[in-house]
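Hello again, I could really use a second opinion on something today. I've been puzzling over a protein and I'd love to understand its fold better. I'm sending you its amino acid sequence along with the backbone structure tokens. It would help a lot if you went through both lines with me. I've dropped the whole record in just underneath, so have a look.
***
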Amino acid sequence: ANSAWVNCVFTSGYALYLSHVMVRVQQHTSDGKRMGEFSMVYYNNLLSLGPIAILAWSWGELSRLPYEPALRDPEFLVVALIGGLLGALLSFSSLWYVSRSSATVYSLTGSMNKILIAAAGMIIFREVSSLSNLASIAVGLIASLVFVLAKGYVVAPAKV
């Protein structure tokens, strides 16, 4: 349960930061316009290589990497390539979504996805449901409904 909250906090923080960065990068481009999604995916993935390398080194994985037998298995390499391509596609779609809507809507969509997956998992896998499981799903659905209603409610400007 705690990891779900941590996931939501970091996902929301990342979406808000990403939205902020997308606006700030405009002033640093040569034409003063927003970067394209492909450029943002490229730089987002390029900047992630540093922390990944540091973590791999600190956990001793870099020294074991050349001896990993899976790296000589063509089937593994194909699956890893497909996984990398799908990851890039996911990154592209996330950046495109944030650029077309807002970080809040992006975060809410991700939360709704988790709520629906939790409910479907309880039904499909015949998971024993408890009051806390059902209450969590209900709170998430109600919060989403309130957001949609608030977002759709437009106050007409006062006539002067």
